[in-house]
Amino acid sequence: MTGNGSDPELGSEDSRLVSLNERLDRAEAAEAKRTAVNAGPESDANYRLGNRVLAELLGGLIGGALFGWLIDRFAETSPWGLLVMLFMGIIVAFRNIIRLSKTPRN
Prior knowledge:
Layout: H1 8-38, H2 41-75, H3 80-102
């Protein structure tokens, strides 16, 4: 084992590594091409739509709870104002989500 490259075992291992690196490079290029096709504008639109649905749902729940708490606070009707307005917030949130799902997307 002199390290001058005359060892046949070392030479065959090196060609296997070169072959493996070439296959790995081809696989990485194919994966980059595949993910570039899937990461188009449609996935961006779906991401925005998902965020909008989440915002509608959270906004309806938080807004209804806040208004209900304020009604209870000033009208001293605890917990009925909170419960009624929370229920109304859920209804409004689902109505808005259904409207979003029915609108045609480009």
